[in-house]
Design a protein that fits this description.
By secondary structure, the chain is mainly beta. The protein has four helices and 49 strands. The protein is globular and about 105 Å long.
Length: 783
C-alpha cells in the first residue's frame, strides 16, 4: 500500500502526463436517457480544437486551451445541436444537453458490434441479421474470450465467471443460468460487457471476471415487446421454449414484465462404464424437467438525477430422473431402478436507488436484495443382485429438504474528480442462511428402518462484511486504476465455527500506443477468493450408478487466486492476451473408493494444494467480403496441478478454440456456421475427453424485419462425452450421451412489436449479485 501511496502523486507530474488544461463536460440527453456515441467537437472558427464521442450514458469530456468556442453535438438520429461557450481556467460543466429526435421511427447504423473500452469488451446488440432470433446464451458466444460449457461460463479460460443482468447477479447452477439466458432474446438486450479482470468495486469472489448484460430501456412514451417460440428436437430429447416481454414507458414510470419457460418432457441420457478390471456398466435416464421464470420491474424517475427501482422475480424448476442401470462385476449382475426427483423455486426481491450527482458520471447507489430458495426432493432406489442362482434385493429411499436465505445490502459511491480522477468507494454486508435436511430409510423384513449414518440435519450461517476503495486516472494515453477491498467472514454450523479476514488488491494500466487509439496495451493484476457453493458444502448423497455416487464436503476451505494478464488490442477487436491464474486450495471434484465398499466410487469436492493456469488467448474477427465474416477464438492453457503438498506437480496442455463464419445474403437471409473444439481436460484425478462440434443456423426476416424465422442444427458431428478417473490405481472410463450434447435441431420464430413514439439511441448491424451464484446446482443435478 505504501507503494501505491507513492505511485499516485507520480502520476500527476508533468513527466508522466500532458500539461493540465481546462475541460468542457456535459451529457447528451433525450427523454431522460443518455445518448450514446454522439460526436462532440469544439470549434474555433474553421479549426477543430478538440473532439470525441459520448460514452454509453451520454457523458463527454473535452480539454482545450482557454477561450471562446462553438460546441457541436451530432448524432445520426437527432437534430444537430450547436452552442457557443467561453472556457475559463476552471473549466465548464454544461449539464444536460437535450437533443431532439430527427423525426424517424428507427435508425440502423452499420458499425462494429464489438469494441474495446479501458478494461472491458463491449458487444452492442442491434437489429441486424447476426442478432435476430438469437437468445442470450447465443449472444454471449459473440463476445471475445467467452466460452459456455456444461461446467458454466468462462472468460479467457478462467472459470467462475459471474453474470449480471441490469446490475443483478444471476444465481443457480450452470444449467439454471443457461436456461435464464436462453429465455432472453436479442430484442431484450442492448449491450454485453465482458470484464476479464474486475476491480475492487466487485465482490472478491469475482475470480473469473464478470459479464454485464444491459437490457433495453425505452427513451420515449409508448410500449414495446417481443414474443418468441422455439423448439429443439433430437432422437433423445425435445425442448419447447416460449418467451415474451412487454415494456411500457409513461411519463416518469417505466414498467416491464416478462415470462419464459423451458419445458423438456423428454430427455434421454446414456452412459457406459468400464474399469481396468472385469467390470461393465450401462445406465439410461429418461429425464423430464420444467423451468419457468416470471419477472416484474418498475422504475420511477422523479427527476433526471434520481431513479428508484423495484423488481420481483420467481423461477421454478422441476426435475425428474428415472434411471435404469445394469452392472456386471466379478460374476455378479446388478439391476437397479432409481427414481430421483427435485422440485425447487427461487424468489428474488430487489430495491435500488440511484442518485446521479453530476453530468460527469458521479453517482450514489443503494441496493437491497433478498433471495429465498426452497427445494424438496425424494429418491427411491431398488436394486437386485444376482450371482449364479442366488438373488437378493435392496430397497431404500430418501427425502431431502433445503432452504436457503440470502440477504444483501450495498452502498456505493462513484465520484468524478478533477484532472481525470475517479473515486469509487462502498460497503456491503451479506447474510447467508442454509438449512439442509435428509432422511434415509432401508426396507428389511417388510419394514422401513432409518439409516442414521446417511441422514443428517445441517444448519449453516455465513455473514460477510466488506468495504472497498479505488482510484482511477485518465490522463493522455494512460488509463490507470488501483483498488483495495477488505472482507471479513464469520461462519457458524454444527461441525464448524470459524472466521477469516482477507485483503484483495487490484492494479490495472491501459496505454494507447497511438493517437488514433487503434493500438492499446493493458496490464492487470488482482487477488480474488472463491467460496464453496452451497451444494458443495451439503453432504447430500446423489446416486449416479450402481457403484458410484456424489456427495458434498462441509469441511471445504475457500480458494484464493492471484490473476495477472497482459493484453494487446488492435482496432478494439483483435486481441492477444497472456497471463496466469494461480490458485491455492482450489476446489475440485475428486473420485475415491468408498470406505464401506471398495468397488463403489465416491465423487466429492476437495481442496487442492495448488493449481496454476498459464494462458494465451487470441481472437481474430476477419471481414473477408462485405457479406462474409469469419471470427476465430483460441485459448491455450498450461495447467500445473499439485493435489497434496508432498505430490510432484502434474503439467497438462489444454486448448479451446472456435471459428464462426457468417454470411449476409440477399432477400434478408442470414447463414452462420460454428465449429468448436476442446482438448482433453484435467481436474484432480479426473479427465474429460476431447470434443469437436459443428453447428449451423439459417435465418429469414419478414414483415419489415419484425418477424424472424430461424433453423439451427446443433452438434452435427454428434460428439458425445468421455469422463475418466483414476482411483487407487484403477482407471474408470464413463462414456455418455446427454440431451444437450448430441445432434439436435432447433426451429423457432421471433416477433418484435412497438407502438407510440420510439427511438433507440443506436442499433448496430454487423456480421458477426456475488452470493447467489453459490446456489450452484442446488437442483440436485450431477455434473
Amino acid at each position: 500500500m505504501r507503494r501505491l501511496a507513492i505511485l499516485f502523486p507520480l502520476l500527476l507530474t508533468p513527466a508522466f502526463a500532458a500539461a493540465q488544461r481546462p475541460a468542457v463536460t456535459g451529457r447528451a440527453d433525450e427523454a431522460g436517457g443518455g445518448v450514446a456515441y454522439a460526436t462532440v467537437t469544439l470549434l474555433r472558427g474553421d479549426r477543430q480544437a478538440a473532439g470525441g464521442a459520448t460514452d454509453a450514458e451520454g457523458r463527454f469530456r473535452l480539454t482545450a486551451d482557454t477561450g471562446r468556442y462553438l460546441l457541436s453535438l451530432r448524432h445520426v438520429g437527432y437534430e444537430p445541436l450547436e452552442r457557443p461557450l467561453h472556457l475559463g481556467p476552471q473549466g465548464l460543466d454544461l449539464g444536460e444537453l437535450r437533443l431532439t429526435a430527427a423525426g424517424i421511427g428507427s435508425v440502423t447504423v452499420t458499425a462494429e458490434a464489438v469494441t474495446r473500452e479501458s478494461d472491458r469488451f463491449v458487444v452492442s446488440v442491434g437489429d441486424g441479421p447476426a442478432f435476430a432470433g438469437r437468445d442470450g446464451e447465443e449472444l454471449l458466444r459473440l463476445a471475445p474470450g467467452v466460452r459456455i460449457g456444461d461446467e458454466g461460463i468462462s472468460v479467457n479460460g478462467a472459470s467462475g465467471t459471474q453474470v449480471y443482468v441490469d446490475g443483478r447477479k444471476l444465481k443457480g447452477s450452470a444449467e439454471q443460468t443457461a436456461s435464464y439466458l436462453r429465455s432472453l432474446t436479442a430484442a431484450d438486450i442492448a449491450r454485453i460487457e465482458v470484464v476479464p479482470q474486475t476491480g475492487a468495486e466487485f465482490a472478491a469472489d469475482a475470480r473469473g471476471g464478470v459479464i454485464l448484460i444491459t437490457l433495453r430501456r425505452r427513451r420515449a412514451d409508448g410500449l414495446d415487446g417481443h414474443l418468441q417460440a422455439a423448439t429443439t428436437q433430437s432422437s433423445g430429447f425435445g425442448v419447447y421454449a416460449p418467451s415474451g416481454r412487454l415494456g411500457i414507458r409513461s411519463g416518469r414510470w417505466t414498467v416491464s414484465a416478462s415470462a419464459a419457460g423451458v419445458f423438456t418432457p423428454r430427455a434421454e441420457s446414456h452412459f457406459t462404464e468400464s474399469r481396468s478390471y472385469p467390470f461393465s456398466g450401462k445406465s439410461r435416464t429418461e429425464g423430464r424437467s420444467n423451468y419457468g421464470r416470471g419477472e416484474f420491474a418498475a422504475i420511477f424517475d422523479p427527476s433526471p438525477h434520481h431513479t428508484a427501482g423495484l423488481s420481483a422475480e420467481y423461477t421454478a424448476r422441476g426435475l425428474h430422473m428415472p434411471t435404469a442401470s445394469r452392472t456386471e462385476l466379478s460374476g455378479t449382475t446388478t439391476d437397479s431402478r432409481y427414481r430421483q426427483r427435485a422440485d425447487g423455486g427461487t424468489l428474488t426481491l430487489t430495491a435500488n436507488y440511484v442518485w446521479r450527482i453530476d453530468t460527469l458520471g458521479s453517482e450514489l447507489k443503494l441496493i437491497a436484495d433478498y433471495t429465498r430458495y426452497a427445494s424438496d426432493g425424494d429418491n427411491d432406489y431398488r436394486t437386485r443382485y444376482t450371482s449364479g442362482t442366488d438373488a437378493r434385493d435392496s430397497l431404500y429411499r430418501s427425502d431431502d429438504r433445503s432452504r436457503y436465505d440470502i440477504l444483501t445490502a450495498e452502498l456505493s459511491l462513484t465520484h468524478r474528480l478533477a484532472h481525470g480522477l475517479t473515486l469509487r468507494a462502498g460497503g456491503r454486508c451479506t447474510r447467508n442462511g442454509m438449512d439442509d435436511r435428509s432422511r434415509y430409510e432401508a426396507r428389511q423384513d417388510d419394514t422401513w428402518h432409518d439409516l442414521a449414518d446417511y441422514g443428517y440435519a445441517r444448519h449453516y450461517t455465513e455473514q460477510t462484511g466488506a468495504a472497498y476503495v479505488s482510484l482511477a486516472l485518465k490522463r493522455g494515453r494512460w488509463d490507470l486504476s488501483a483498488g483495495l477491498r477488505g472482507e471479513y467472514t464469520a461462519i457458524g454450523s454444527e461441525s464448524l465455527d470459524r472466521s477469516y479476514f482477507g485483503l484483495f488488491p487490484n492494479l490495472s494500466a491501459n496505454y494507447t500506443l497511438n493517437g488514433l487509439r487503434t493500438w492499446m496495451l493493458a496490464a492487470q493484476w488482482s487477488r480474488n477468493i472463491e467460496r464453496p457453493s452451497f451444494l458443495a458444502l451439503n453432504p447430500v448423497r446423489i446416486q449416479l450408478s450402481d457403484y458410484s455416487y456424489q456427495t458434498g464436503n462441509p469441511a471445504l476451505r475457500p480458494t484464493y487466486i492471484h490473476r495477472l494478464s497482459l493484453t494487446l488490442i488492435w482496432r478494439y477487436r483483435y486481441v492477444l492476451s497472456i497471463g496466469g491464474n494461480l490458485h491455492r486450495d482450489l476446489i475440485r471434484e475428486v473420485a475415491s473408493a468408498d470406505a464401506a465398499n471398495p468397488d463403489a466410487i465416491r465423487i466429492r469436492p476437495e481442496n487442492h494444494c495448488t493449481e496454476n493456469h498459464w494462458f494465451a488467448f487470441l481472437t481474430l474477427p476477419l471481414k473477408i467480403t462485405r457479406w462474409w465474416e469469419l471470427k476465430l477464438n483460441a485459448v491455450g492453457v498450461a495447467q500445473r496441478i499439485r493435489l497434496e503438498r508432498r505430490d510432484t506437480p502434474a503439467t497438462h496442455g489444454l486448448l479451446f478454440a472456435d471459428a464462426t463464419a457468417a454470411f449476409t445474403l440477399p432477400a434478408e437471409f442470414y447463414v452462420e456456421a460454428v465449429y468448436r473444439c476442446q482438448s482433453r481436460l484435467y481436474s484432480g484425478n479426473s479427465e474429460v475427453g476431447p470434443r469437436h462440434t459443428l453447428g449451423a443456423t439459417v435465418k429469414k426476416r419478414l414483415c419489415k424485419k419484425r418477424l424472424t424465422l430461424f433453423l439451427t442444427a446443433q452438434n452435427l458431428t454428434d460428439c458425445g462425452w468421455e469422463f475418466v478417473s483414476r482411483t487407487d490405481g484403477i482407471r474408470r472410463v464413463v462414456k455418455g450421451r446427454q440431451p444437450w450434447s448430441g445432434r439436435a435441431w432447433k426451429i423457432g420464430a421471433s416477433w418484435n412489436f412497438s407502438s407510440g413514439e420510439r427511438f433507440r439511441t443506436r442499433k448496430v448491424e454487423s456480421a458477426a449479485d456475488s452470493e447467489r451464484s453459490r446456489l450452484a446446482k442446488t437442483d440436485g443435478q450431477s455434473k
